[in-house]
Structure formats: structure tokens, C-alpha cells
Amino acid sequence: MKLSSLLLAVCLGIGLAAPAASQAAAPVPLAAFFDNADFGEAVLSPSGKFLAAKVGGADRREGLAVVDLSQISVQVVARFADVDVDHVQWVNEDRLLFDTIDKRSGEGYRRFAPGLFAVDRDGKNFRQLVNRNASFVQPSSAARLLPWHTFMMEQRGAQNSDYVYVRSQKMDGPGELRYEELLRLNTRNGHVTSFGRPADTRGWMLDDKGEPRLTWGHEKGVQTIYLREQDGEKGSWRKLASFNAYGVAKQGFDPLAFGPDGTLYVVSYHAGNDKKAVHTLDLATGQVSAKPLIQLDGFDFSGHLIFGRGKLLGIRYVREARDTLWLDPDMKQMQAEIDAKLPNTVNLLTVPSRPETPNVLVRAYSDRQPTVTLIYNSESKTFNKVGDSRPQIRASEMAGQRFLRYKARDGLEIPALLTLPNDKEGQKLPLVVLVHGGPWVRGSSWGWDADAQFLASRGYAVLEPEFRGSTGFGGRHLQAGFKQWGLKMQDDIADGAKWAIAEGVADAQRICIAGASYGGYATLMGLARNPELFKCGVNWVGVTDIQLMYSGHWSAISDLSEQWKEYGMPQLIGDPEKDAEQLKATSPLLLAARIRQPLLLAYGGADQRVPIYHGTKFRDAVKAHNKDVEWVEYAEEGHGWTLPKNRIDFWGRVEKFLDRNIGAGAEKK
């Protein structure tokens, strides 16, 4: 079977389309943005001779295919009738490991765990390794299977035998991970041994040889990292470091990777730096090196190291967008060659772990172009196009995006992304301020995003602020958001809208605020605090009262752990007793009577992160004073929409809601 008949046609010397002004046409359909991607994960074998990829189509479940890159032929090696292939790894050159997910069931209706399976690249010797059923009583056929709470590691192993390491989690309840055990598993016969652990640890790191060297856990707000000494088959563990598990720990670090020479690379705020940088760590003393390997101007380091041929080849990181610093001259030259051939995209290169071919995996994307996956032959200088994540999307119809910084009222610089509809530069547009969740995450980086591009395709400018408390922009930016829910964090969002008005981007009379989770909370607080600024709001799966996060409700289960409630939330959000008055003053539920603007509320019936009682209690409170409230519940969904039909339904509602309040419909009124 030829690659063209299952994945996509072979394209030699491919050039991705440059953005161009689009002609007047019907809006891009909702499904083009919010349906499941047509093509996802693709992984090169250790030698680079084969490519594993997930394939679906024609109402068939997503299966696993292996492409022989020398013959450009493909074989489907695994497919199920009732579930989709999810994560994929190469165990070695001949064998694959994968788990599953049901993409046709919402989170609340899923009754099976991911499981774990192995198969040879020719489709032979298929074996189930982990049970998908969480029942206490198992059939005799499942006797040799590992229990359902066993999961694949994100980090690849040595890839030189049939063995892999897998994680076995012991839970005390939703969100209550007691410890995570590491198991060594033979993917052919299912034989398994426990590696042992020094404490109730919750994470693991393998060294360059694929063997466990680090493990960590936290207790009573303190994180402890343990190192395995190399003095035998399993070695002995010793405490390497301990520090505050929450907030900014100046003496702390995040393990990044072990190099081929045994060097441990970490990410740290060390030596008084405000931005996280990559350092090495002295394994004898636990001390972080004074001089960083790489430090990004204006950004915390986020990314990973690229090793090959026994050395550090390069560093993948995120600034405004993803990028790569190549330390190896040959890779640097190859990157330049590819960028010259694909000048309109960011091109991320992945090399095989033990290359025997000139094949390199390339993921190309831009603000207008969803990810396209290609194989580059470094000898012939040609491309084979493997898959297009969203072939229905044409770059010429998408909107441009730029990274910027504006100043909040107290002078703090707030990073943000601004997406403007095609041919609308210099016009005062209806604006959607899209607030990210978390909130202690980075919202997004420059690149194609379904939510922002959909809104822009309907004529709206989209501003995505990285308000204080967001990660990725330094310790001071993060700490400035501590205990500032509804206060200075909220000011940053309002100041972004005011900046857009002052810059002539936004029509002051047509601004809506929207967001999910924490972004939903900020939406409600924005409507309550700044009614003169925000004319409407869209909140999905949003927190409506901080005290409810502590106390919960008899009607539903929350997955917030007791450790997080006791040691994390009081430090980052507010203490339920000491800060009770502040939490009361920043509760959308208690401020519901002040919200008179049109409001769209959407919640998942099976959400355990922000259980639905947050939504129903607020809905009942706000409807007593506001007659323009739309409510939707997706009974099978959790903390967000996993099913395409629900994403399409929700964003269709958003489209109509915005149109009648700040869009063309509002202008007609």
C-alpha cells in the first residue's frame, strides 16, 4: 500500500503556502477549527528508517501505522473498533508501545483507562500489557495484565531491548496521588519488576542510558529530589535537594535531562536571576552552577535539550514562538537549508536517536498555518509530506498574530498576543479579551490557535494577556500575582482592553471578555468590576467562588488535593480564614447582582476540577438580576470540551452571542 493512499501524497521540494490576502468568501466552517485534527503524532524509529504515525479517516477509529521510508510504503499495525490510539513510542527499532483514548466519549462517560499495548512494526506479536478495566474483580484472561493505573512514561528509554519503564500510580482519591512506583516491563512476555523508591515519590527521570537516576515528591509543601548512585544494578538513593514546592524557590530547580557524560541539566532562578535559565548541577553537592548554559532575554526558559551522537546537539525553547539553538554545526546548516525552502513557517527538526539514514522529522507551522509534518532527506535535500493537521484550513484565510507588551497601571509590563482579522489593520474593531486558565501557566505562544483564529475569522480582534501570575516571564511577574485573584491580576486584563482602545485597535463600545477555568473567573470579575469596559462575557468551566474551592459541595467530587488546599492555595490564592474578607470581596458569586451585561455560561456535568455547582449556584444568583443569561451544560464533559460535537456546538453559541452583542448584529440593532 502506498503512502499516498493512506496518509498524504509524496511531495518533493515542497513549499508551504505564503499568507496572502483572501478574497471575500463564506466564513471558514466551524468544523475546520474545532473538529479533531486529521493528523497528529508521528515518531521516527531510532535509526530513522521507519515512521510511526496515527491514522484515521472515513469514520474509522484512529489506528497506528508504520511507514517504511525507504520504500514509501505503509502498513496499519494496530486498530480497534471501540477506541483510538493515543500516545506512541518506539521500544526499539522493531517494536512499538502505545496506549489508547476514546475520542467519541466525553470524559464523564469514559469507563476505561488508557491501557498499554505493544506490537512489532510489521503488525506481529501484538500484546496487551495493562488492563483497561478498573473493576476490582478481573476475568482470568486479565490475570497477567498490569493494573489499570499503570501508564507510559513521557521520556523514552534506551530503545535497545524489549524492556521499558512504566509508572504505576497509587491514589487515595481524586487528585490524591500517594506515590508513583516505577516498573521495568518486558513488552514481549509481560514480565515486570519494581525498581524500588526511596520515599513516596511522584515523578521520575531516566539518564541518557535509559536508566532511572532521579525521583521526587513533596510533603507538607516541601519538594525533595533523590539521586540514585551508580553502585550496582539498582544503586542506592540519597537526598539531593529540598525546597519550597510552591511559588518561586530561589535555591530550587527543575530537573531537565541527563547528558551522555552524566551531566545533570536543570532549570533554575539561580544567582538572583529573575528569569529561569538552564544550568548544570553538581551531583556531589546539589549546587546549581553559577553560569547558565542558556538564558533567554525577557523569558523563563521552557523547552528541552536535544542529544545525539554522544553530545548535546541543540536546545529547543520558547520565546515569542518556539525556536532552536543548534550547537552542532551540521544541524545548524541543515536548519538554514530547511528554513530557506520553507520560509513562511517555524520549522522544528527532530533527529533519530541513533541515525542510520538521512531522514529528519520536520514540524512546520506559523500563526496562519496549522502544523504540517514532513520528512526531510538531508542528502537529496527533498521533502516527503507525511500529514497535515488541518487540511481544511488555508493560510491565506487566516489572521496575523503578533507578540507585544503593554504597561499595566502600576508600570508592570504585561506580555500579550494580538490577533487581527485579515485586511483589518488600522480599524477600530470589536474586541474579545481572551483570558487563559491556570492561572499559573503561560497562556500560549505565537502560532496557529483554533480559538483565536475562529474569532478573528468572524471579524473580531483577539487580545490574550499574560497577566501577572502567568509563568514564563520571570519570577517577579509570577510572584506579583500571588493573592491577586480579582485584584491586580484583574487590573492587568482591564488595562489590556484600555491599551487596545488607546492604540485604535478596539472599538470602546464593543468589547467582550471571555475565558475558561481561571479565565472564566476573570470574565465574571471583569463584568462586575468594569461594566463600563466589558459589554458582555463568556465563561466556560469557570471558578465562581474561591471559598467553594476549599469547602466543596456534597453534590460533586473535586480533584483538588488536600496538600494543594493546605500548602499551595493559601500561599498563591489566599488563606480561607486569614484572607476571608479579601476572598469575599473577590467572589463572583457574591457579586452576581452587579453583573447586568449579557452573559453566556457553559459547564461540564462531569467536571472534577471546577465541579458544576460553581456554575449552577452562580447561574441562579445572577439570573435574579439579569435576564440576558444563556446557560448550557454538556453532561458528559469534564474540565473542557473533548468531543468535537460539543466544541462545535459551544463555539457556534459563542458566534451568535458575540454577533448580537458586539458584532454585526449589534450594529444593526
Task: Write structural notes for this entry.
The protein is an alpha+beta fold and 669 residues long. Helix content is 18%, strand content 33%. The chain has 13 helices and 35 strands. The strands form eight sheets. The chain has an eight-stranded mixed β-sheet with strand order 28-29-31-30-32-33-34-35, with helices on both faces. The chain is globular, with a radius of gyration of 25 Å. The N terminus is likely disordered.
Topology:
Layout: H1 3-6, H2 30-34, E1 42-44, E2 50-57, E3 60-68, E4 73-78, E5 84-90, E6 95-101, E7 116-120, E8 127-130, E9 150-152, E10 163-173, E11 176-186, E12 192-194, E13 203-206, E14 212-219, E15 222-228, E16 237-244, E17 254-258, E18 264-268, E19 277-282, E20 287-288, E21 303-308, E22 311-318, E23 322-326, H3 329-341, E24 346-350, E25 359-365, E26 372-377, E27 382-388, E28 400-407, E29 413-420, E30 429-435, H4 450-457, E31 461-465, H5 475-479, H6 488-502, E32 506-516, H7 518-529, E33 536-540, H8 546-551, H9 562-572, H10 580-585, E34 599-604, H11 613-623, E35 629-634, H12 644-661, H13 664-668
Parallel strand pairs: 30-31, 30-32, 32-33, 33-34, 34-35
Antiparallel strand pairs: 1-2, 2-3, 3-4, 5-6, 6-7, 7-8, 9-10, 10-11, 11-12, 13-14, 14-15, 15-16, 17-18, 18-19, 19-20, 21-22, 22-23, 24-25, 25-26, 26-27, 28-29, 29-31
Q: In DSSP terms, counting alpha (H) and pi (I) runs of 4 or more, how many helices?
A: 13
Mind summarizing the main beta sheet?
Answer: 8 strands, mixed
Uncertain residue ranges: 1-15
Strand-pairing-aware structural class:
alpha+beta
Write out the strand line-up for the largest beta sheet, numbering strands in chain order.
28-29-31-30-32-33-34-35
